[in-house]
Write a structure and sequence with these properties.
The chain contains 15 helices and four strands. By secondary structure, the protein is mainly α. The longest helix is centred in the last third of the chain and has 37 residues, at 336-372. It is globular, with a radius of gyration of 25 Å.
């Protein structure tokens, strides 16, 4: 019974139960299921995938999906263990003995938290790879994989350090001023979010290397196609960077700058002319529906809610349990790990809402594309090809679909197939 009174033991126990539930859930839900009315139609993966490909796909995703959801919780759970186990308060005590300026103590402590976070994620990723290697899906020797992971982790660690340092420093500075600090935090977030949504795209416009579409005749056809839809494009460009996994293209319409279509090399290489028109039609749907503005508004509201909810929960934690876990006051260095843990937890909580909003606008763009480019057979062929090339699950389990910003491939195939039936082409 004493163990049940120890927060670390109880936390680990609950996390293990959660992990087991995730493994059980996905073992039963990963197998691809097709609605009976669509069996044997272009919607059915058995029509465009071999039985062996389906078997290997189900094997892989039965391992990947549990890892994905365990990793989601593990990301903030690592930092909670750092606080509950006393690691954060001990690190603060060590740093205070060095007698460095407070801002340097802050910088070092944030780095300590980020390193612990990445090492924890590395452990989870390595265990996941061992399961892939054992099942024959992973072909690299685990030691070689680990060395490659460590090599990639260094720049990721530096990037996350900056990403977490800036907002955490802002929050800590506002808290140190006292008063109605959560209201002040909300007021500071407004211009930061405006910069992110309306200034950052301009920066990307100038820093993302692009080149004109090599096929000038194809570019002219696309420009005329957009013009018939009432949208004026400056041009069509190609970049070597992967932009969006599902469509591999975007409408590049930074505020105050000419609108253009940017697609990546992979889409240009793997998609025929009809498929390119379909992708462009989808992206035109985002532009025509003013999705940039509406999505930016929703994103700003949800981000503000997420940060303020994190701030409120952190304040309640410090007031009620702070002393027990070595967090003496709101701006205590040992509270940094707790604040970031709460923020990551709230990110997980808000993710289904954010994803649902984005999926709504993706479906809206799909409907627009079907109106201005009424060739559902092209959509069916393109979606099937994406599944084959990317090895994606055609219709993931519900939990994963709740976190996806796009409709599943099967949902898109059903939409296109119903359009095909309306045209009498089935």
């Amino acid at each position: 019974m004493r163990l049940l009174k120890r927060p670390v033991f109880v936390s680990v126990l609950l996390f293990v139960v959660y992990a087991i539930l995730m493994v059980i859930y996905f073992q039963y839900t990963v197998p691809i299921r097709v609605p009976p009315e669509y069996a044997g139609t272009p919607v059915d993966p058995a029509v465009y995938l071999t039985p062996e490909r389906i078997r290997r796909m189900e094997t892989y995703f039965s391992l990947y999906f549990p890892y994905k959801f365990i990793q989601l919780a593990w990301s903030w759970f690592i930092l909670w263990l750092l606080v509950a186990g006393g690691g954060a308060s001990r690190m603060r005590a060590i740093l205070e003995k060095i007698r460095l300026p407070r801002f340097l103590l802050f910088l070092v402590h944030v780095m300590f938290v980020v390193i612990v976070y990445h090492l924890g994620r590395m452990v989870a990723a390595f265990i996941h790879y061992l399961t892939l290697y054992d099942s024959g899906i992973g072909t690299r020797h685990p030691l070689s994989w680990l060395l490659a992971y460590l090599n990639a982790m260094v720049p990721a660690l530096a990037e996350d350090y900056v990403y977490l340092l800036v907002p955490t420093a802002i929050v800590w500075w506002i808290m140190s001023r006292g008063g109605r600090w959560k209201l002040k935090l909300a007021l500071v977030l407004v211009p930061l979010l405006m910069i992110y949504h309306f200034v950052y795209p301009v920066y990307l416009r100038y820093t993302t290397p692009v080149r004109p579409l090599p096929d000038e005749q194809l570019e002219q056809k696309i420009l005329e196609f957009a013009d018939r839809a009432g949208i004026e494009l400056e041009g069509v460009y190609v970049t070597g960077e992967v932009i969006v996994v599902d469509m591999n293209a975007r409408m590049d319409y930074a505020p105050g700058m000419p609108t253009r279509v940017v697609m990546d090399e992979t889409m240009l290489r793997e998609t025929n002319e009809e498929g390119l028109f379909l992708v462009v039609a989808h992206e035109l749907g985002h532009y025509a529906g003013r999705h940039l503005i509406t999505l930016s508004t929703w994103d700003s509201i949800l981000h503000m809610a997420k940060v303020l909810a994190s701030a409120w929960l952190y304040e309640r934690f410090v007031r009620r349990w702070g002393t027990r876990f070595g967090v003496r006051k709101l701006t205590d260095l040992s509270g940094i790990a707790m604040f970031i843990a709460i923020f990551l937890f709230m990110t997980m909580v808000f993710k289904p809402v954010e994803a649902a909003v984005t999926r709504h606008y993706e479906r809206d763009a799909d409907r627009y594309a079907a109106e201005i480019y009424p060739y559902p057979e092209v959509a069916i062929e393109s979606v099937q090809k994406m599944v084959v090339l990317q090895g994606s699950h055609p219709h993931p389990p519900l939990l994963d679909r709740l976190l996806s910003i796009h409709p599943s491939y099967m949902e898109r195939l059903i939409f296109a197939y119903e359009k095909l039936k309306e045209q009498g082409k089935e």
